[in-house]
Amino acid sequence: MDQIDQDLVCIGCGAHIQTSNPDELGYTPESALRKGLESGELYCQRCFRLRHYNEIAPVNLTDDDFRRLLSQISETDSLIVYVMDLFDVNGSLIPGLHRFIGDNEVLLVGNKEDILPKSLKRPRMKEWLRQQAFANGIRPIDVVLTSAKNRHEVNNLFEAIEKYRNGKDVYVVGVTNVGKSTLINQLIAIRNDIKDLITTSRFPGTTLDKIEIPFDEESSLIDTPGIVHREQMAHVLEPEDLKYAAPQKTIKPRVFQLNGDQTLFMGALARFDYQRSNGPVVAYFENNLNIHRTKLENADQFYEKHAGELLTPPTNGNFEKLPKLIKHNFSVSEKSDIVFEGLGWISVPAGAIITGWAPEGISVITRKAMI
């Protein structure tokens, strides 16, 4: 195919289609382009992989590009719907968001609430999420918990948007992989009784621009590109191992009665050294992620011998691509979570001394216990 129509855009993200550079936005192999034109569903390769394989592909956009887009929001009179992943709250944070939204009000949405244990009281979860937002400079007018995947509480979210927007435009913001597009599809379906608008219809704009979806005659629901959070575990995993970092079902807490100087390995992806024991620890990870316990004094040799084999994921072939584990030391004065961003967390008692290990570039942090 010698000539590409410059008006061809990906119906998933809005990027202009091109077939020449696999590393640039909008790339689509010529064979896929032909099939897309025939079927009427034209996706860039990145959106195709995200849609069918849950594969995260890097985007060649700079932080300045995202800041430029966000800064445009401060000049509007609108409602901001800020979508966060309840399983990966810290990985859902947009640094400095409060500086870009101006005087606009923020409705905070905790998505994927179906992943959290049923025992967690939802009112407490909402208050905890509000406190996390406060700590990062965001003062939401309300907090709504939902599951876009299961349509749980989506109607309540729609009603909250209608309540707070007062006829204004609605900007939906969030980092990649929080379920933002699924949520928008659900909201538009409620308004217009149309399914999968973003992924099956054409809208103006590119990935670097906003995509405006008519909400009514006077206002629009405006999708913004997902902000790439580069410190999440998913960005160092191969596609077949992503399932261990993105739970699809309710996670089951795993309790470990640890003595001092014991270690937990989360596959070969992360390591938790418990150096002072003041009670049990509780692990919150994807249910199929293997957790192995060993003595701290043997941990280095155990990892060297078994990583990629007994300790999986990743498998032996993919383990070679995993960055080396870097240690992060913590001493907590209150019950806290040790969070391996994009993978899960371990709840520890007050007074614990811990070392958390994660691949180089992936954050390990401590926060006030969620549960």
UniProtKB/TrEMBL annotation:
InterPro entries: G_CP_dom (IPR030378), GTP-bd (IPR006073), GTP-bd_ribosome_bgen_YqeH (IPR019988), Mito_lipid_metab_GTPase (IPR050896), NOA1/YqeH-like_C (IPR048422), P-loop_NTPase (IPR027417). Pfam families: MMR_HSR1, YqeH-like_C. Coiled coil: none annotated. Residues 67-230 form the CP-type G domain. GO terms for molecular function: GTP binding. It comes from the Bacteria. PANTHER family: GENETIC INTERACTOR OF PROHIBITINS 3, MITOCHONDRIAL. This is Ribosome biogenesis GTPase YqeH. The gene is yqeH.
